[in-house]
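Weekly puzzle thread! Below is a chain. First person to post its structure in token form gets bragging rights.
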Amino acid sequence: MTCNGAEPLLPPSRRAKPRCIFGYLPIWSECVPLNSDTGSVDSVRVTANVLAGCIIGIRQTLTGIVSATLVYTGSEYPEITDMFPFGISMMWYSTMAGSAFYAVFGRLQYNTNATQEVCAILYGAMAQNAAVTLRKVGRADQIQPTILALIVSSTMLTGICSVLLGKLGVGKLMLRFPTPVTSGFLGTIGFFLVRTALQVSSGVQFVNFYPVDFGAFFSMHSLAPVICLMVMVALIRNGPSAIAKAFPNSKLLKLSGLFCQLCPLGLFYIVVCLGGFSMGTLSKNGWTYPTQASRSFASLWTTYDLRDADVTVLLSNFPSMLMLVMMSVLCTMTGVLGITGKFRMGPDGDPAPMETVDFDAELTTVGFASIFAALSNGVVTFHRLGSSIQLRMDGGTHRLAVLTSSCFVGTFFFTSLPLGHYIPKFFLGGLFMGSGVSFLESAFLSYRSLPPQKFMGYRLPSPQYWVTVACILVATFSSPFHGIGAGLVLSLVIFLWDSAQSSPVASMSTGSHTVSRTFRPFWELEALCQHGHRILLFYLQGQLFFGSGQTLASSLVEAIEQDLLGGAVSERMSEYCILSFGKVTSIDASAAEQLRMAVKRVSEHGCKVIFCRMNSQVFDALSTLKVVTAPDVDLRQLLGLQTKGPSDVVGEDSNRLTDASEVGDASPPTLSRTLSCWGEGQPFKSSIYEDYDAFDDVTDALDYTGDRLLEKYLYQSSLKGYMLEYRNACSTGARLANEAFEAMNLLPEGFLTQIQPFCAIQMGLASGQRLAEDDAFCFVFQGAIAVVNELSDQKQTSQGVSIKGFQGRRQKRLRKRYPPGSIVGKHEFVLNSWQRLCDTGTTTSRVVSSKFGHMTEVWTLTRSSWKSLGKDLSLVLQDLSLRQLAEEKQHSLMSDN
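Winning reply:
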């Protein structure tokens, strides 16, 4: 990618980057810039990487001081403030080690790991809690080793959890953390940054958001550093844009931010030199920290003994440690998103510049770095968003730049320079007050990116925005941990409220407007249009829990009881209610219990509830409460349910579920006896006389309920002979006589006898068998043919989401089921004649169905045989095809989709 002209655009590579337990292994092209023509080291770009690394090293060195200030200087207890020099050493070491570790094992060759103000705030809160607890019990001598133990323990816990989450592949779940809570937490951090900046600069302690001593705060001794602080913050926030307007074409614009940060420090020393002030005088008057005795870098491991820590205090702070884990993981994920989102592809030397970054691998690398830091008295480090982006934009495109920044910070760590004595307090305060103001600004203005809410004609900010505000306010009067907790609670309340307000019923229909995909003759469609209102069909959606479950139960009962109140019971009563759970991901125990009570109530009114399209979790919840007791064979097959034994498929109680205790050592039914209509060899048994209450899909449920209505309201009356013969063929599996076939389709008498010599007759076809001819007329006389679509490559989308329409029975999609008296293949035959049959990326197959008989008989008329027919027979077939195409279109307009 070209970044300000510094990087050439490279073609993406398909070479996989080598991995290891810590993340990735570096390769030479990532470490130093190479000449694209010769492969030799590019000395000019090496220099650019080293300079960019030094500039970022300056920022990270100052950031280490800022982090130490947040942990150790915001307390009124001297035991904590005395640890400030030790804390600076700890932060420098952690940044040095974290950046070096990521430079070796990280995926992003331009990313720097460093200490973070977010974690420093949390460390400071734990240190304050420890000091308060130990002072109350008179063990102040244990405060310092306990604080170190708290930092090391929480760092170790964060590292272990990060590695586990990364290795288990669940790190990306942290990206689903509520955004308002994250925004509120960052706003909370911003508040503490601003408060700490004022405390450090003025030397006056604050309670909540105001100073303890207003007189001391507004004295000139205190206000002078605060005024310098405000001027510095204004320069940091407005200086770069002013410089960009004044010098729009300058090549030094990339350094304008760094210049505005360092300018107040330079002006301070100019004033100090001109005024002749000594560092001792500045320290005495509170402008800088007191000088500390020179310490070796080894003091990081020799100053305190972890065995002196108070174990009780450590255990009591465990919830706070979990907050640190949560925020560390979340900040790592958002940091990766922010860094990679800034650049379209990886820089020069990246073996796979277009590869999507593995979030779990990043979490693993950061986790191991934290474990290493904890073992050596360090703190948590992870992706430094601003520094990494700035590093690459400054020309630091390779691991050399990251290692350079690590060495720069390491120089201060190993030389033990008392940098805190030479850096004015207002300067340190200005660095993180600038960040704090940005965090607060982002939090309080987040309502701009949220949809407004209308209340009494006024447009108010979204309820999600008030979660952010609540986090900040609660943290202001308590702690960051309480602020996060309050935000999570409010987010949960809003979620439950919104879920309860949204209807779990996506849509509904009746059997008069929605029929199954089984092609029915005109007299059955007429009867279903007349009596189909006795079938209610509810399409459900979302997660069903105690709130939405109650809404569903109320909707179900109300729909049934409204029918009873709308007129005569015999005319208005709903006899069946189908619940489609196709878009329901889960159901909890409360919702299942509420649904059970609703099913029981409507059953007292004579309405039977049918369930379909359930996943295994929904089925288990409903079957455990005996809401579902009689799933059909196909559903049991798909869910892998145990039955009473191999013979139960054809037994009297074949549809009844049994407990494992009833089964004993009985083997599960063999596949040859329990396969659905996509399998082979299942004996036919009409569902008209079964007592099912659960099906695989909506079509089977509509077939079941529709057949029962037809049996009750249509076939008990006087009908023509061919209609009764058709019913007998569908319900018993018998062959439909030629005369009945001809009468059903308005064919001249004896027509089938005339075309029989031109047809290939297939008899005794087994369930699941495919018809070989895909460009022919197929006359169905016995059994049924199902037209299904199959995915050519069985692909699934990301995260296991199924292709639309291919759920359920072995990834096949039922298009139409043709019973006796139908002709299959009309569309293909006609469209192929003019070469207009489209390839939709799926394979269309004609499969023998198991729903209408033990055996299937099909007459096949191929295209070559069609040409041999006489003109009279051809015209009759054309009229027949036209009628069936029109009737099939009429059926499709009403069928379930």
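Puzzle host: Confirmed. Bonus trivia for everyone else. The chain has a mean pLDDT of 81.
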